[in-house]
Amino acid sequence: MKRITIIATTFVIANTLMATTTTSRASLNLLLRRSPSKLRNAKFFSSSSQFRPSTLPKSYSCPIWSSSFSFCLPPRSTSTSLPFRQFSSSPPSMSSAIAAAVSSAVSDESLLSSNPLLQDFDFPPFDSVDAEHLENSVEPSWPKLVEPLEKLVDRLSVVWGVINHLKAVKDTPELRAAIEDVQPEKVRFQLRLGQSKPIYKAFKAIRESPDWSSLSEARQRLVEGNVLTIVLITVSAQIKEAVLTGIALDDEKREEFNKIEQELEKLSHKFSENVLDATKKFEKLITDKKEMDGLPPSALGLFAQAAVSKGHENATAENGPWVITLDAPSYLPVMQHAKNRALREELYRAYLTRASSGDLDNTSIIDQILMLRLEKAKLLGYNNYAEVSMTMKMATVEKAAELLEKLRSASWGPAVQDMEDLKSFAKSQGAEESGSLTHWDTTFWSERLRESKYDINEEELRPYFSLPKVMDGLFSLAKTLFGVDIEPADGVAPVWNSDVRFYRVKDSSGSPIAYFYFDPYSRPSEKRGGAWMGEVFSRSQVMAQKGTSVRLPVAHMVCNQTPPVGDKPSLMTFREVETVFHEFGHALQHMLTKQDEGLVAGIRNVEWDAVELPSQFMENWCYHRDTLMSIAKHYQTGETLPEEIYKKLLAARTFRAGSFSLRQLKFASLDLELHTNYIPGGPESIYDVDQRVSVKTQVIPPLPEDRFLCGFSHIFAGGYAAGYYSYKWAEVLSADAFSAFEDAGLDDIKAVKETGQRFRNTVLALGGGKAPLKVFVEFRGREPSPEPLLRHNGLLAASASA
Question: How far apart are CA 653 and CA 453, in angstroms?
Fold first, then answer.
């Protein structure tokens, strides 16, 4: 049977999307809409002999997620190591390439049913699948209901996930337009499936059957109702979540609900695009070296590199010219180190007003999003959108607000003192602005005070944190804690950029258990900011290929750190090191899951406010002496970070902890207020709410023209709506989890390994198959306490006095 496995076909298409500059809307529609029967009859008109279906490489019987993958690779050649098509500099046209790839993926075997869900397909037949195709054969049993549903959802998630991933890391106007065309069809399909009453009734029948008690806890949780969120495809089939998709509404209200969902998805994408475009739009060209006074060589090199990319071919780090952007690796060094106060002010104002004017103004989009979310909540019988959001989380609105206020009261006094300390220090340094420090001064003077107090310069530490050494140390830690080996597997799978690395994860027996991609560097022209982890494939018994017992998980990890400059490797700030550890924590939960039920494996089905536990837990190890010393090696001399600097780093951990805590609490409180008490179209504007919340959460009041909300992608485009509090909620969980290692003894390697295995077997292994509070208690032996978090941040005394 001629067939290319899902990952091969998907990334053939991914490579085509990246290689060609003539992406068309029709091409992506072809990708997402072709059904197998149509594809078999498709005609190909490409003049490229290199991409005729007959010339595609032969596929192999053990795909990348197979546990026996490493033992059945084809012989390696100098050009390719797997049957994935690589394109030359002159790729075939988009439509012919996709059509050829998809055609080759279609089985030649006769199909036994007219139901497209029962046919084998590589890409979802959006145009020919209706909910009735599943409904007509629904039986209230696991093999007849859940397994077919998982297969369907998996195919949807793989294709749509790849396309959205490319949009985040390889953005083009053509790709945006194609997604925009296909997106409404995707949303309509998922809504219809999520609102299927026969499916809903079948799940209820399973819940009420005499066999209920014999189901595993993972299966019971899946049925009883937690959100099934897979990449950017959400299909709601369980009891609680089905209600949130409008299944209980009458036809007229359900139609209104569906229109709201369509519009919300459209607005979310537009919000994100506006932020990206506004960020890219700002460029500051500087030719006078005096204006760059105070900036470190690494930043000057980055700015010169940006200038070269903008046509200034002779730009150098020493003599310029330099181009500064609002991308984080460019923006942050200016705010930290530029002595030019006017430059800092200009960048701060530009950053805080991104996407707030002209064609890119997100103000009206925010208003529409909040209005539609409130309408959605009212349709479902809730008072506000926060109540809808909390239905699928550990916390309640009241519990979240209670935690935020407790942490706020513990942080306010120290944050006020932080500002007084800054003013005093700036005055001691003869700064004219010492009596009127404002937003574009605090980061600069904080860095100077930290350097003075702890004699630590972030830039001077960069040579000790080269990316290769950091990754080696991170993988060594994973082996110590969790008993896994991680090795490079570059060339095994296609990648979307030459900087992307591919890794294999093996257990103690040497067998592969997972794979992941790592895309570390900033690319402002095409890649969105921030850092994230996403899934490519989940662990699944149902999706196992023939001859294997389970499909292995595959993840991607994306960061935006400073890229290599010249012959120097990527030299990281300590914050960038923490970010890598953070995202790796997410990846570990995805990859080390032992759940075979694909719909609750890894990060799937984990409550939103618990999903940050592993990521924030891993950040703690950046301050563990043995771990830090293993990664902190000078990239030229190999010298280990001096002991006195490590001690200063440890002491500096609580530096301005009140201010940093208050900043996160401001975001969380504003998010919660907008989704509980704010009335869209009422007497207050969104900016009025921001100013009001800031009275208790910002020591320096925001500027009247502050438009931070227009760039607040987390809650308007990133899934954190009425959920930003979850960062602090998860910090409580993660700090308490790390305190288990402290209690065991961080210097006792045997105890650390035993505790690490317990963490792996609970927090990392159980995924969404068990309630997160139960998982935590199983690991920790008790319910979580905020005491370790306040202690780690040096705020425990303030909390007690409050």
Answer: 12
Q: How far apart are CA 93 and CA 89, in angstroms?
A: 12
Q: How many Å apart are CA 642 and CA 661, to the nearest integer?
A: 29
For the chain, how many residues are written?
802
> In this model, does residue 173 exceed pLDDT 90?
no
Question: How much is the pLDDT for 462?
Answer: 92
Beta strands in 136-249 (DSSP E): 229-230, 233-234
d(CA 103, CA 353): 48
pLDDT value, residue 57: 30
Share of the chain above pLDDT 90, in %: 57
Strands (E), 29-69: none
Closest to 767 (Cα-Cα) out of 596, 609, 593: 593
Rounded CA-CA distance 276/606 in Å is 29
Furthest-apart CA atoms within the chain: distance in Å: 83
Listed in sequence order, the residues at least 6 apart from 619 whose beta carbon sits closer than 8 Å to its beta carbon are 578, 581, 582, 585, 734
Task: For residue 592, give both structure tokens.
Answer: 């080390």
Question: Residue 95: CA atoms inside 13 Å, Cβ hemisphere, count?
Answer: 15
Strand order in the sheet with 501-506: 485-488, 501-506, 512-521, 554-561, 532-537
The one-letter code for the residue type at 406 is K
Report pLDDT digits (tens) over 187-225: 777 777 777 778 878 888 888 889 899 999 999 888 876
Best CA proximity match to 738, nearest among 771, 784, 773, 799: 784
Q: What's residue 122's pLDDT? A: 38
583 is annotated as an active-site residue? yes
Partners of 533 in the β-ladder? 557
Kind plus residue range of the DSSP H or E element containing 654: none
Phi-psi region of 315 (alpha: psi -120 to 50; beta: other; left: phi over 0): beta
CB burial of 504-519 (b: ≥16 within 10 Å; e: otherwise) equals bbbeeeeebbbbbbbb
**Nearby residues of 489 by Cβ (< 8 Å), 6 or more positions away:** 502, 503, 504, 515
Q: Which residue has the tokens 């996407």?
A: 355
Q: In terms of C-beta density within 10 A (0-12 exposed, 13-18 middle, 19 or more buried), how is residue 530 classed? A: middle
Q: What is the pLDDT of residues 423-465, one digit of tens each?
A: 999 999 999 999 899 999 999 999 999 989 988 888 889 999 9
Confidence band (pLDDT; 50, 70, 90) for 80? very low
- CA distance linking residue 383 with residue 375, whole number of Å: 10
Closest CA to 392 of 566, 221, 561: 221
- Average pLDDT over the chain reads 81
Q: What is the pLDDT of residues 120-140, one digit of tens each?
A: 543 334 355 554 555 555 678
Other CB atoms within 10 Å distance of the CB of residue 762: 18
Pairing of strands 554-561, 512-521: parallel
Q: Using CA atoms, how far apart are residues 657 and 240, in angstroms rounded to an integer? A: 39
Question: CA dihedral defined by 377, 378, 379, 381, rounded to 10 degrees?
Answer: 90
How far is 598 from 542, CA to CA, in rounded Å?
Answer: 7
Q: Quote the tokens at residue 621.
A: 């190890």
Q: Are 330 and 324 in contact, with CB atoms under 8 Å apart?
A: yes
Closest residue by Cα to residue 249 from 213, 297, 197: 197
Q: Is it the case that residue 551 has pLDDT exceeding 50?
A: yes
pLDDT in tens, 377-387: 999 999 999 99
Select from 748, 787, 778 the least CA-distant residue to 626.
748
**Rounded distance, CA 501 to CA 499, Å?**
6
Which stretch of DSSP H or E encloses residue 421? helix 397-428
Catalytic residue chosen out of the listed positions 174, 261, 583, 597: 583
Q: What's the token pair of residue 557?
A: 């990890």
Looking at residue 144, what is its pLDDT? Answer: 83
Q: What is the pLDDT of residues 468-505, one digit of tens each?
A: 999 999 999 999 999 999 999 999 898 999 999 999 99
- 657 phi/psi in degrees, rounded to 5: -60, -35
